[in-house]
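Q: what sequence does this backbone want?
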C-alpha cells in the first residue's frame, strides 16, 4: 500500500463519476470542485467506463481496499452497474447518492457488487427538503431508501449536512433512524471552503454535546477518531446509531485521511479541499496511471495543520506549500513494497 510523507496509507479511493445532478443543493461542494455548473448541464469530459475500470485496476495493484462512487449524482450514469461489476473483486464498493434513482435499480446494483450505500437526506419534511435541494423529489428519496433496504443494503446510512437551515431538524432525524431498523445517520459538518457562505456554519461541538447527552452508549472508532452515538427512539421502541463527520479545522481528521479522489473528468486529487493538486489521467496507459498515482500520494499533505496553519487564531496558507516543487515518486517510497 502506498504511504505518504505523513505516514498516511492510501487505502480508499473516492471516484466522482459525473458532475451532473438532478438536484441543486444550496450547500453542494461538488466533491471539492465547487459550484461549477447548473443541474443537468450537458455531459462533458466524463471518464468513460474503461477509464474508470483501468484506474480501479491500478488502485487495486496498490492494495487499495475500497472505492466509493460519488458525483454529482452517480446514478445518472447508465453504465454504473457495469462499472461496479468490473471493479476488482477484492475492493469493497460503496456509493453516495441522492437516492432518487434507487427505486427499480437498487437490486441490480447489489447484484453487480454494490456493498454499501449512503443516501443524502437533509430534512424530514417535504418543504425544507425542497428548499435545500431545489427539488421536489422528497418522496422518491424516501422510496429510494426503502428500495436500498429491500435490496439488502443494510444498514443504509443517511447523510445529513448540518448547517443553519438543517440544524433544527437533527433531533427529528435522530429519532427517525432510531425508530426505523436498518437506518443509520451520518451528520456531516457543513464545509464552507469551496462554496462560500461561512455564515451558514454552526458550532459542531454543540451537536456532539447534545448527542452525548442523549446517548445510551458511545463508541470511538479508530478511523478519524470518530465517535458513534447509540440513541433510543423517543417512544422507547428501537435504537439508532449516529456519527458525526467533522473535518472543518480538524487536524485529527486530516491526520487520519486515507483517501485519494478522482474527479469526474479523470483527474487525481489528493485532498478534498484543494484544487491546486489535480493530476489528469486522460488517455494514460496503466503504467502512466501508476506513476501519476504515486506522484499524487507523494504530494499529499494534511490540509489542516500542514497545508493550512493556525496563526493568532486564524487559518492561513503555509508558505512552504506555495510554489513548492512537486515531489516525484522517487521521494516517496516509504511503506511501498511494490
Ligand atoms: N449526489 C450524491 C449525494 O448527494 O449524496 C453524491 C455527491 S454529494 C457531493 C456527496 C456528499 O457530499 C453528500 O453527502 C453531500 O451531502 C456532501 N456535501 C456536499 N457539499 C457539502 C458541503 N458543503 N459540506 C458538507 N458536505 C457536503
Ligand atoms: Fe450535490 Fe449531491 Fe445535492 Fe447533487 S444531490 S447537488 S451532487 S449534494
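A:
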Amino acid at each position: 500500500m502506498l504511504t505518504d510523507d505523513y505516514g498516511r496509507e492510501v487505502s480508499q479511493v473516492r471516484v466522482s463519476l459525473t458532475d451532473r445532478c438532478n438536484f441543486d443543493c444550496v450547500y453542494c461542494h461538488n466533491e471539492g470542485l465547487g459550484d461549477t455548473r447548473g443541474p443537468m448541464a450537458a455531459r462533458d469530459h466524463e471518464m468513460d467506463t474503461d477509464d474508470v475500470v483501468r484506474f480501479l485496476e491500478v488502485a487495486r495493484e496498490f492494495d487499495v481496499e475500497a472505492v466509493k462512487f460519488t458525483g454529482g449524482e452517480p446514478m445518472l450514469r447508465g453504465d454504473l452497474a457495469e462499472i461496479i461489476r468490473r471493479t476488482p473483486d477484492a475492493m469493497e464498493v460503496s456509493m453516495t447518492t441522492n437516492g432518487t434513482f434507487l427505486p427499480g435499480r437498487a437490486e441490480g446494483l447489489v447484484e453487480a457488487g454494490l456493498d454499501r450505500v449512503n443516501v443524502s437526506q437533509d430534512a424530514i419534511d417535504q418543504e425544507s427538503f425542497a428548499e435545500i435541494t431545489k427539488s421536489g423529489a422528497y418522496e422518491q428519496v424516501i422510496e429510494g431508501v426503502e428500495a436500498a433496504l429491500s435490496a439488502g443494503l443494510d444498514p443504509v446510512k443517511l447523510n445529513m449536512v448540518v448547517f443553519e437551515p438543517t440544524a433544527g431538524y437533527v433531533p427529528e432525524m435522530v429519532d427517525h433512524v432510531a425508530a426505523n431498523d436498518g437506518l443509520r445517520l451520518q451528520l456531516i459538518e457543513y464545509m464552507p471552503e469551496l462554496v462560500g457562505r461561512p455564515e451558514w456554519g454552526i458550532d459542531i461541538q454543540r451537536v456532539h454535546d447534545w448527542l452525548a447527552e442523549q446517548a445510551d452508549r458511545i463508541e470511538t472508532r479508530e478511523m478519524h477518531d470518530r465517535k458513534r452515538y447509540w440513541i433510543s427512539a423517543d417512544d422507547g421502541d428501537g435504537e439508532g446509531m449516529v456519527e458525526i463527520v467533522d473535518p472543518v479545522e480538524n487536524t485529527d481528521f486530516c491526520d487520519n485521511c486515507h483517501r485519494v479522489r478522482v474527479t469526474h473528468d479523470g483527474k487525481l486529487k489528493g485532498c478534498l479541499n484543494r484544487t491546486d493538486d489535480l493530476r489528469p489521467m486522460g488517455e494514460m496507459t496503466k503504467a502512466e496511471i501508476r506513476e501519476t498515482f504515486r506522484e499524487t500520494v507523494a504530494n499529499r499533505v494534511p490540509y489542516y495543520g500542514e497545508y493550512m496553519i493556525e496563526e493568532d487564531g486564524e487559518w492561513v496558507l503555509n508558505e512552504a506549500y506555495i510554489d513548492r516543487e512537486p515531489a516525484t515518486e522517487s521521494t516517496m517510497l516509504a511503506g511501498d513494497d511494490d
